[in-house]
Amino acid sequence: MENIGQKYTARAHTNIALVKYWGKENEELIIPANSSISLTLDEFYTDTSVIFDSTLQQDMITINSEIVNDEKISKFLDIIRHKSGINLFAKVESINHVPNSAGLASSASAYAALATAGSKAAGLELSDKELSMLARRGSGSATRSIFGGFAAWNKGTDDQTSYGYSIEDPVKMDINMIAIVLNNSPKKISSRLGMKISYETSPFYDSWIKQTNEDFETIQNAITNGDFSTLGQTAELNAMRMHSLTLSANPSYLYLNKDSLLVIEMVKELRDKGIECYYTMDAGPNVKIICQKKNIKAIVDNLSNQFSQDQIKVSGPGEKVKLI
Fold first, then answer.
1. CA 206, CA 212: separation in Å to the nearest integer?
2. What's the total number of domains in the chain?
3. What is the pLDDT along the chain (324 residues), one digit of tens a residue?
4. By residue range, what is the domain housing residue 165?
5. Nearest-CA neighbor of 105 among 177, 26, 207?
6. Same domain for 16 and 110?
7. Which of 172, 192, 221 is the last residue of a domain?
8. Which of 132, 211, 245, 278 could lock 290 by a disulfide, CB 3.0 to 4.6 Å apart?
9. Strands (E) located in the chain
10. 206 and 299: one domain?
11. What's 85's domain CATH number?
12. How many CA atoms within 13 Å lie on the side-chain side of 262?
């Protein structure tokens, strides 16, 4: 327990799912309805510091230098306290280098960083697999942000069998993502609520699970074989099938906006011109374009006709979580 009273800081990067997770079989433990695959990105990340302090009367949490009263983070710290057997409050300072709640996986990097710094500050020495299981309790996608490059989240059936693992890091494939930040604002319907509505009410949900299991195998093989085209095509279709669950839910809801559709059409036009690229979207209006290095300039030049430079973020594969 020599770590107690020391401050630890961790950096974790966001990830964008190529095979989406959309729906939970267990809300409390965050056990997903399907396994998923992602690419960790170097452009977006969270730095989080944690110290357990015997002088504190409550958890002190700041996000982007603002004091917040976040019950979810305190409950997550309770899990760390329970695992480590300590009974101290913590001071948490987190800086997000990614817009919150806008479909750019801010919670994934946030909880991966919090799990890593928090467990270390509590005297725990966890493996990457154990860290992924801990991070999952805060955000499902954080399971994958423990790892760099291509990572997967094994669905599992309980707390011990639902975990993340590395598929390939460093990444051998020529792959980049261009994120078009169309809206920095938190979304009206959170991912958590959106998943619940889709899981419980979409008549297409069972078909989604069957198809997504097939997509998982397809993309895993594409990574192994260095097959960029199959990866891109499958990821694009998987994303649109996820969004079909929002439209077919009761009540129906929508994350896309008119600018999202504009980017989607631009990607299709670029493909028609022989510039290979594919789009994907998570729970938010922001679109990510999957492309190879040789086509980045042409895509960015095209996007610049409609969007500002501040809205266009080019990212390559990112690293695994680390203490800094």
1. 10
2. 2
3. 567 889 999 999 999 999 999 999 999 999 999 999 999 999 999 999 999 999 999 999 999 999 999 999 999 999 999 999 999 999 999 999 876 545 566 899 999 999 999 999 999 999 999 999 999 999 999 999 999 999 999 999 999 999 999 999 999 999 999 999 987 777 889 999 999 999 999 999 999 999 999 999 999 999 999 999 999 999 999 999 999 999 999 999 999 999 999 999 999 999 999 999 999 999 989 999 999 999 999 999 999 999 999 899 999 999 999 999
4. 8-172
5. 177
6. yes
7. 172
8. 278
9. 8-19, 24-26, 31-32, 36-53, 60-63, 66-68, 89-97, 150-154, 163-168, 176-180, 277-281, 287-291, 312-315, 322-323
10. yes
11. 3.30.230.10
12. 14
Show the tokens assigned to 32.
Answer: 């997903």
DSSP per-residue letters across 194-214: HHHHHHHH-TTHHHHHHHHHH
Q: How far is CA 207 from CA 184, 217, 323, in A?
A: 32, 16, 41
- Considering the entire predicted model, what is its pTM? 0.95
**Amino acid identity for residue 63 in this structure:** I
Confirm if 147 and 109 have CB atoms less than 8 A apart: no
173-209 burial: b if 16+ Cβ within 10 Å, else e = bebbbbbbbbbeeebebebeebbebbbeebeebeebe
Residue 212 has which token pair?
Answer: 């997504």
